[in-house]
Structures are given as structure tokens and as C-alpha cells.
Amino acid sequence: MSNQQTLIELNSIQKVFFTDEVETHALSNIELSINAGEYISISGPSGCGKSTLLSILGLLDTVTNGQYQLNGHQVASLNATQRARIRNKEVGFIFQSFNLISDLTVEENVALPLTYRDDFSSQDIDKAVKEALEKVDMAHRANHFPSQLSGGQQQRVAVARAIAGNPSIILADEPTGNLDSKNAEAVMSLLDELHREGATICMVTHDPRSAKRAQRLVEILDGKVIADNPIARGVQAA
Ligand code: ADP
Ligand code: MG
């Protein structure tokens, strides 16, 4: 018997989008479990269902059929309010396009999700924001607005926002897709560091070299998992 704690369990997940007369079967029969502390990457061609899967994992979208258990919560049984509360507590989401709010400062962006938490006092929020910004080396830009930052800096702020609430899982959808190679490496190193410190990470990426930074690679094709394998260590790409 494994002594690792199962954090995420997906059983027979199906997602169908209905638009006009068209039915898109974005995900079919997805089975996936993720243990606490794992670092997983998800890859596959454009349109295969990666973002849909990550949105479901992050409680940003719901399934058409199947069971999703997140850290003991049966997601299907939650109403919209409960789902938002659990999302805010359990999930840190990092988007390809950063998704910072342009008229909030860096520290206000990082603080915003915490203001919806009933377990964070305003002092707790200040402390968590400061620590998260220090972690991503952006504390010196706390009072700047997103438009005053480079893309790499904005994504580091987005990482701070994702980790400030100490979520049980960090989900990243092509987190380096809009960055040059130097800034991409800075974000990837941050994810490595968070993982070493115990974070559970699930990252969608097109880039095979980024995918190999994880411990396990899940490959998707046409809405189905076609491979799910550990990544060999000690053959780090140069
Ligand atoms: P990927 O992230 O792997 O590129 P997506 O998960 O974005 O793929 O999309 C999977 C499939 O679902 C595609 O065919 C896409 O067009 C479709 N799809 C995604 N989101 C929606 C939506 N909101 N409405 C209709 N179809 C969608
Ligand atoms: Mg996508």
C-alpha cells in the first residue's frame, strides 16, 4: 500500500461543449490521480483538451460526466458558492497571459484572492503577500502596476498570487508560453524550487524540455490520456 496521499482523483471524466449545432467532445474518459508533492506535466497538440482539463482541475469549469475528488471534496456535489470557496483555498492558477488586473498594484493583485478567504485576517494577508513577493523576487515592485512591468516580471507576480494562499495544488497553463527564454527559465526555476519545498504542481506545456522538468508526463491526444509515465532523472537536458 502506498503511503502517499492522493490529492486529486479523476474518474471517467467527460467534457462536452455545446455551441450552436456543434458538439465538441473535449475530454473522454479521463482517469488521473495526483499525489500530494508530485510535479506533473501535461502535453499534447493544440486543441487536444489540455486547457479544458486544467480548468476542470482548477474548478474554473465543470465536467459533463464523471467524478472529481479534490483534497477530500467531491466536486460534483458542490454548489457554485462552495466551488468558488474551495477553488480559492485549494488552487493556485498560473495562466499563459498572466491575467493580472491592470488597475490594481502588484501587491493588490497578490492580495485579492486572499480577501475572499475567511481564514486570512488583514494582517495575515499583508504577511502572506510580502512573503510571496519576496519568494519571486518582486517585493521591490509591490506598488507598481502590471503595465509598468516586463512580461517575465508579470508572470512572477502571477506566481506570487498563485502561492500566497498556500494552495494544495498549483496549476499552470503554458506558464512560459508568452516569455522569452531567459524569463521562461526564471519561471521554470521558480516552479522547481516550489516543488522542492513540497508544492504539488500540474503544468501544461508544449515545450518538451519544460515538460521534462516534472517527475511525470501525461500525454493527451483527442481528449484522451494516451500515456502517463515517470520521467527518468539524471538525463537533464543541457
Ligand atoms: P488545448 O489547451 O489542448 O489546446 P482546449 O482544452 O483549449 O485544448 O480545447 C479542446 C477542444 O475543446 C478544442 O476543440 C476546443 O475548440 C474546444 N473548446 C475549448 N473550450 C471551449 C468552449 N468554451 N466552447 C466550445 N469549445 C471549446
Ligand atoms: Mg490550451
Can you put this structure into words, describing what you see?
With 238 residues, the protein is of the alpha/beta class. The protein has one domain (38-59, 80-230): Rossmann fold. Helices cover 30% and strands 28% of the residues. It has seven helices and ten strands. It has helices at 50-57, 80-90, 106-111, 122-135, 151-163, 181-196, 208-211; strands at 6-19, 22-35, 39-43, 65-70, 73-74, 91-94, 169-173, 201-204, 216-221, 224-230. The strands form two sheets. Strands 6-7-8-3-9-10 form a six-stranded mixed sheet, sandwiched between helices. Strands 2-1-4-5 form a four-stranded antiparallel sheet, with helices on one face. Helix 4 (122-135) crosses helix 5 and helix 5 packs parallel to helix 6 (181-196). It is globular, with a radius of gyration of 18 Å. It starts with 5 loop residues before the first strand and ends in an 8-residue tail after the last strand. The model has no long low-confidence stretch (mean pLDDT 95). Residues 50-51 line the site of magnesium ion.
